[in-house]
Amino acid sequence: MDVQAISAELQTRFSLPEGALKVQRATRLWVDVDMAGFPALFDHIVKGMGFNILCTITGLDLGADLGYIYHLAHDCGIMVNVKTRSPKGSTVKSVTPYFPCADLYERELVDLLGAHVDGLGPGPRYPLPEDWPVDEHPLLKDWTPKGATPAGDAPAAGAPAATPAQPASPPPAAPAEKGSTPA
Amino acid sequence: MSDIDRVVTVPIGPQHPALKEPESFMVDLRGEKIDAVRIRFGYNHRGIEKGCETRSYTQDLYLVERVCGICSFSHSTAFIHAVEEIAGLEVPVRAKYIRTIIGELERIHSHLLWLGVAGHEIGFDTLLMYTWRDREQVMILLARLTGNRVNYGINTYGGVRRDIAPDMMPEILKVVDSLEERTKHYIELAMREQTLIQRLSGVGKLSKEDALFLGTVGPTARASGVDRDARRDDPYLAYPDLEFKVVIDDHCDVYGRTIVRLGELMQTYSILRQLIKKIPDGPITVKAPRRIPEGEAVSRYEAPRGEDVHYVRGNGTEKPERVKVRAPTLANTASVGKMLEDGYLADLPIVVAAIDPCFSCTDRMVGVRESGTESRGAGRKTMTWEEVSRYGVEWHKARGLDFSSLGIPGGIEA
Fold first, then answer.
1. Residue B384: what pLDDT?
2. B411 vs A148: CB contact, 8 Å cut-off?
3. Which has the closest alpha carbon to B264: B250, B242, B244?
4. How confident is the model at residue B391 (pLDDT cuts 50, 70, 90)?
5. What's the CA gap between B237 and B109, in Å, rounded?
6. Shortest CB distance from A161 goes to which of B367, B394, B396?
7. Does B2 have pLDDT greater than 50?
């Protein structure tokens, strides 16, 4: 399998606009497709061309839109990176029907970027804690921690201060933790 | 309803003696047999990807290396490959060889560590003692080559920070010879020791079809007959110049995962001898820009636990626009539930250990509980990076260690 041939096939079959395909090297192809054309192109790459490894999904904050990159690989070593985008607040189809392992990758998109993934089954949050505010998504560019104290102000709440009850003294040596994995 | 038909849910973790890192398994049991498992991760999430966006590429290299304490070089190299590709840097061949040597030494220490943990999980602590004693040889060697036992800090944009002196090459070979003999002993043990064979055979079954369907990677996949290895399939560093076999096995259980890792150790010794023989003279670095151009790249690196994937997007500044890390354990978590299906509760520790999980890698936020509040909900506070720095300084200061004179970021007086 040749990356140029894959690029040509995708160009012919999906009539992609100029600049939508980029061969970066012998094992890297980037494909940019709008959300309307994404399902058919994704289906063809996975089922028609045999790219049956989903390496991961990368989410991007692109201002008004969220970007998604599906990193698909083939046993021959070639990786096709399918890029698409949708306005923040809109939904994107889950790819778990193709790749069950996408479940955690899509939960990351939901937690860290506030993506709405249609078809993602019930399950625990990942990676944020269950009590993390549902409207705070740390990978958004404009996200700042609520309640954070600006640098240079009063010491952070919770930072333990030295008190008479806690005299300054060298810390005791930490006991070796049984069952831990030392480096 | 008899007791055996009643479903009992046993929580294992996030803190549990059977687990080396925090993760949660809610196990539904019928008698001793596992009916269903619900897995929860995320306890080690440290916001490293977000942290990378607020730091320079130089700082990020060291931050990314701390994604994991065991496969630190894997993460550092996967990350640097992506950045170097965006920057169009051509790394000198000698530097590629040195990186490959360090990467393969890391594989040895990771696999020997795993073998010891596996022995421990099945009550075979003698194996733990032997393998970790042997592992010290490679840890000491890594410290001599890089200055550190882990988090080697040897990668730099455009090459490596340290050369390997000619007199170190025989030292590497000496360690390789010694560990090869020891690995042969462990292979013989794995082939003949009935306690080991019977304890691991048929445990944590994962068929090839399930491994492919669930996106399993690394030795876990190869032990289910999946013939994939990024070193051969999407080669990088010096691997195109090297001859090695991708070790696969069809036992599809924990025993097979043991066989694969032992076989991979033997391949690594062969790879290291080839590297020492073929390493060319020449420069070990090229000049790299501080500002990385706009662009994006994704790299694949065959870490000891499986394929490590890093995506980097540059925006023309000194800081990346986006860094994404996919550690192999995240790819393998989907298969754990399958492996545990219809298994016994007593097998859970070894089944989980057999994917060689690393949840630090996988989770990559610091939640701090305010004094006198509950550990969940309103008591939780989110901190800025500066606050985390200040918190650390104050924490140590209260205990008699004053680091404030070192001058750390975040408005702390130097």
1. 64
2. no
3. B244
4. confident
5. 20
6. B394
7. yes
The label of the residue with tokens 């545990």 reads B340
Q: Where are the beta strands (DSSP E) in B184-294?
A: none
Two structure tokens written together for A22: 């980029």
CATH fold of A3-87:
Beta Polymerase; domain 2 (3.30.460)
- Confidence class of residue B401 from pLDDT cuts 50, 70 and 90? confident
Q: Which one of A56, A152, A160 has the shortest CB-CB distance to B395?
A: A160
Phi and psi (nearest 5°) for B8?
A: -115, 130
| Strand (E) or helix (H) holding B391 | helix B385-397
Cβ of A25: how many Cβ atoms within 10 Å? 11
Q: Where are the domains of chain A?
A: 3-87
A 32-51 residues with CB below 8 A of B? none
CA angle (B308 as vertex; B383, B278 as ends), nearest 5? 130
Where residue B44 falls among pLDDT bands split at 50, 70, 90? confident
A21 touching B, CB under 8 A? no
Residue in chain A closest to B385 (alpha carbons) equals A151
**A27 touching chain B per CB within 8 A:** yes
Q: Would you list the domain boundaries of chain B?
A: 48-357, 368-406
- The parts of chain A modelled with pLDDT lower than 50 are 149-183
CB contact under 8 A, B398 and A170: no
A60 vs B313: CB contact, 8 Å cut-off? Answer: yes
CATH number at B48-357: 1.10.645.10
A75 touches chain B (CB under 8 A): yes
